[in-house]
């Protein structure tokens, strides 16, 4: 997809620039800088991707300038590929680092033989829950979605708490559930894109939540981590929340909750995988970089070395490390907020090995989520999630074609 020439390694000292919305990332770069006097890294803060950072990056690319590296969400990477904005790192030997990364994350930056970014962080999914609320009702912690539904009926019938909420307006979570169930909505091939949003795994998830909403197992009036959700959780009206590893920091915002919450593996579907990912970023080497090999090597150090990962956790509060074997020293012990539980090693680290390796992002991810959310909102006026899936697939096909992209439905 890229046509820029392969550039030789630098001959002499160089300075790399990195645009990112992670706080205090310069302190991480300073650890590298102290050890690599000939390759110094300077970090500039930008707004989060869709909040303005991407617009700034696109403008810089159009002007032929910009940084060597930029933080790009995994789901946004294909859009930068469309404008030839990122470098195919396979020409700089990136495959030698493949075994350092979780397989699923590596696959999410790999397209048709190329590797277009370095995974930077992610969010394996588990279930945050209140053991006291489950125990008071004689309930075991659900391991499957059907067990989760049955427990939700008990909470509903008692009338004091919900087992979870379903965010109708943020369909990225639904995409994660579908991926866990075994769905692969899009894949790139040599002739364009293949879409398969209405596969049986996705329809199973949609039918399940249609039922959960209809039978008032889940709430839909507010999303996780909103003020209304925090207030409900503080009143003991939220029994659990299926969410990503980065939610642990947000959970501490629940008033009076220290020691009350624990973490368990995500409930599983009848098909698919033990967990899924929500969120995740990359360190992408832009096509305008004059030193792509050195930029790649810094990104690999930052995301797979013990000192790089520890520095990112301590200074920047990153999500889950993309490294196969290193989660960060700070995440290896127990947590007072979660009652002393070593939930990172007990739950989230195993979850990274239980992912859908075939899930792939596509060039109009955010637009797809917006279209799907419009369809989901019709649930409140008699529509169904199942209907929204089929409608969204048809509309997204038109979006692709209007952008001049080749797309076809998967053979079923």
TrEMBL record:
Keywords noted in UniProt: Cell membrane, Lipoprotein, Membrane, Palmitate, Signal
Any Pfam family matching the protein: SBP_bac_1
InterPro entries: Bact_solute-bd_prot1, SBP
Protein name: Sugar ABC transporter substrate-binding protein
């Amino acid at each position: 997809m890229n046509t820029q020439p392969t550039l030789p390694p630098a001959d002499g000292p160089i300075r790399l620039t990195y645009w990112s919305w992670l706080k205090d990332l310069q302190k991480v770069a300073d650890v590298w800088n102290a050890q690599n006097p000939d390759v110094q890294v300077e970090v500039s803060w930008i707004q989060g991707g869709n909040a303005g950072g991407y617009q700034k990056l696109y403008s810089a690319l159009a002007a032929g300038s910009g940084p060597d590296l930029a933080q790009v969400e995994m789901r946004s990477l294909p859009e930068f590929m469309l404008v030839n904005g990122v470098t195919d790192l396979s020409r700089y030997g990136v495959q030698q680092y493949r075994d350092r990364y979780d397989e699923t994350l590596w696959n999410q930056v790999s397209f048709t033989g190329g590797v277009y970014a370095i995974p930077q962080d992610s969010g394996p999914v588990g279930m945050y829950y209140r053991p006291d609320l489950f125990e008071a009702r004689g309930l075991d912690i659900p391991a499957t979605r059907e067990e989760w539904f049955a427990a939700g009926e008990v909470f509903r019938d008692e009338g004091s708490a919900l087992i979870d909420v379903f965010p109708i307006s943020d369909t990225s979570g639904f995409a994660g559930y579908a991926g866990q169930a075994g769905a692969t909505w899009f894949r790139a091939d040599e002739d364009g894109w293949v879409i398969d949003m209405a596969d049986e795994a996705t329809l199973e998830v949609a039918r399940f939540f249609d039922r959960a909403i209809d039978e008032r197992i889940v709430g839909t009036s507010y999303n996780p981590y909103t003020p209304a959700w925090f207030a409900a959780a503080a009143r003991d009206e939220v029994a659990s929340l299926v969410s990503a590893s980065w939610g642990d920091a947000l959970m501490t915002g629940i008033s009076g909750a220290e020691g009350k919450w624990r973490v368990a593996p995500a409930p599983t579907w009848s098909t698919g995988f033990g967990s899924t990912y929500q969120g995740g970023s990359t360190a992408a080497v832009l096509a305008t970089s004059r030193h792509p090999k050195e930029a790649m090597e810094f990104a690999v150090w930052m995301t797979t070395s013990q000192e790089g990962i520890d520095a990112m956790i301590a200074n920047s509060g990153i999500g889950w490390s993309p490294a196969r074997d290193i989660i960060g020293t700070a995440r290896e012990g127990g947590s007072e907020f979660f009652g002393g539980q070593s939930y990172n090693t007990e739950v989230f680290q195993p979850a990274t090995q239980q992912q859908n390796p075939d899930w792939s992002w596509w060039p109009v991810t955010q637009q797809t989520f917006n279209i799907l959310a419009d369809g989901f909102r019709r649930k409140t006026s008699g529509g169904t999630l199942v209907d929204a899936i089929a409608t969204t697939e048809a509309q997204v096909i038109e979006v692709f074609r209007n952008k001049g992209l080749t797309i076809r439905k998967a053979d079923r």
